[in-house]
Amino acid sequence: MLVAEKSLRSHLQRYFGFDKFKGDQERVIETVLEGKNTFVIMPTGGGKSLCYQLPAMLMEGTAVVVSPLIALMKNQVDAMRGFNSEDSIAHFLNSSLNKTEIAQVRDDIRKGKTKLLYVAPESLTKEENVEFLRSIKVSFFAIDEAHCISEWGHDFRPEYRRLRPIVDAIGRVPVMALTATATPKVQVDIQKNLDMMDAVVFKASFNRPNLYYEVRPKINAIKEIIKYVKQHMGKSGIVYCLSRKKVEEVAQTLQINGVKALPYHAGLEAPVRSSTQDKFLMEEIDVICATIAFGMGIDKPDVRFVIHHDIPKSLEGYYQETGRAGRDGREGRCVTFYSYKDIEKLEKFMTKKPVAEQEVGRQLLLDTMAFAESSICRRKILLHYFGEQYTQDKCNSCDNCVHPKKSFDAQEEMCLALEAVKAVKEKFDMENVVHVLIGKENQMLRTYHASKLEMFGAGNERDERFWTAVLRQTVFHGFLKKEVETYGLLKLTDKGKAFLKKPYEVKMIEDVDYSNTESDDDDDFMTGGGAVVDEEFFAQLKEMRKKIAKQKNVPPFVIFQDPSLEEMAIQYPITMDELQKITGVGPGKAAKYGRPFLDFIKTYVEENEIERPIDFVVKSVVNKSQLKVAIIKNIDRKVVLDDMAKAKGIALSELLSEIESIVASGTKVDLNYYINEMIDLERQREVYDYFRTAETDSVDSALKELGEGDYSLDDIRLMRIKFMSEMAN
Description:
There is one protein chain. By secondary structure, the chain is of the alpha/beta class. Helix content is 49%, strand content 11%. The protein folds into five domains: 5-203, Rossmann fold, CATH 3.40.50; 211-402, P-loop containing nucleotide triphosphate hydrolases (Rossmann fold), CATH 3.40.50; 411-505, Winged helix-like DNA-binding domain superfamily/Winged helix DNA-binding domain (Arc Repressor Mutant, subunit A); 535-619, Orthogonal Bundle (DNA polymerase, domain 1), CATH 1.10.150; 625-728, Orthogonal Bundle (Arc Repressor Mutant, subunit A). It is built from 34 helices and 17 strands. Helix 32 crosses helix 34 (713-728).
């Protein structure tokens, strides 16, 4: 069935409201209408969906579109219904439908109302669905996200490899495969598996000139993400994480820092995932924090940034996920936080898989590592991976081109590293080979008498970090392989042996170290990661606190404790919102004592032209821990503290520490119901009066002053909680 060019464009206008095709769309559609098998490799935003939607509208029968995700199907069906007056024009068939809904779908198809039927591969294998599809006119099959077929693809799904026999069982009709990412190896794998080596292949350029690629060392990643999102407030973005736990954590942290964000992963109920996706599309939220379960085929053109909290498992995954930015052709920024520890963690996970799968996974990881640590134009590396040559020297749209890193010829160093591996007879892992190079003995090296080797200490003019980086680069370049199944022993490859015989220039970035970056957990991002206190200003804040304490007739520590003042002398908060991000300062305390401090800090900052790091400070989810919330609720219900501690499985002293932390943050608690049972009123007054005039809130000083025989440590701590809660909050 061939449609004239003019007619085809008129159909495009009629059904979709567009007056011209993009790229190869028109040629693809003509090929499908001619009844030929078709393979479309087109980057995200290239308009793949239209390549099967328009021919489906023009051909007799119903086109069956195999799609991997329920959320994706719903999105596509909603889009098609938006172009048509009848909802029956497109349906999906998957596990989310009940029997009544399935019956309605089948009835609409039988009546010829439905031109597009989206099915999950799992649904397609069900015998009743195969029988039903045999009974209707199928115009063609479209296999969307076809990279899922290949074990070398980034999102392999075994059920995809069973599609061809099912298609044959339903009836031999044209097959169309579509994907946004396919290396030459994956492309052949897809065609072989779908028995469509005769397919007409359309391969668009993988270059997305509007995307900016950037890789950052993974240091305080969550804090950096909060900062980045805050700088792009109101813009749509996606933050990808490898684990569901990290997705939840990042989403929560964004929320409590004033960002409209929600988590999305396979562990959530289907209605929750669907609702979250709808909110993102309808701009009710700005940011989705997700595992790779989100975004496949999502039709949101204005995603302005894609952030990877964790490095993806493959460059195909990276390309697919970053490809969700800037689908409208406008700005799209792709920021990835990279740590070598993440790579090691992914390698460790792979050891549980079959050996063949491990080998595939390792090769994919090596490509990802080479991309992350390379000083070469990132666009050039990415396009080369997909079999496309980028001829320009610079793209000027990646961090390596905009901020070139200093590199040097490392052939001598790499030769030395390879010689060391050879000298230890390929029986050492990376750490021990490094120790041989720098001449650092340990128990294992003593066992193998490594110090007697000629290579021992041959590279001692450089440090451990340098040689670790060199060895990693030799792995990236394929000179060495790391055998995970034998605890990471380094082995020379044929390429490495050839390099040793005839070395050539190998560029290596100077002074780039990813080994000390984080792997999964971000340590202490609340207080600026060890920033230096402005001692002079800290002294001024203490002096000011003393004056205010005198005016209010309370001890200075009641106003703000020293740790809070120290943090103010690091972060320089000048708004109420910023002040509440300081440790030990809650809304109540900020409102009660904050204004004069804020005015004082603002004046100091302006007079001394200080560049404030407050933008980097984020509220921590930890401050809203479940334990603290439970303690506050139990105190409100007047639960005896001993019973509370027992129920929580902690000692009374630990419980008091938690309550002290709650009070220090500015939350008021009423422990009179417990204190009145434990300490008589006269002794209560004595301790209370002591803290009124004390120079410090130290419990040890109080015990010494009041007499250790008369009071226990817990007595003093309880009264200090009462005093601080009533006077400070």
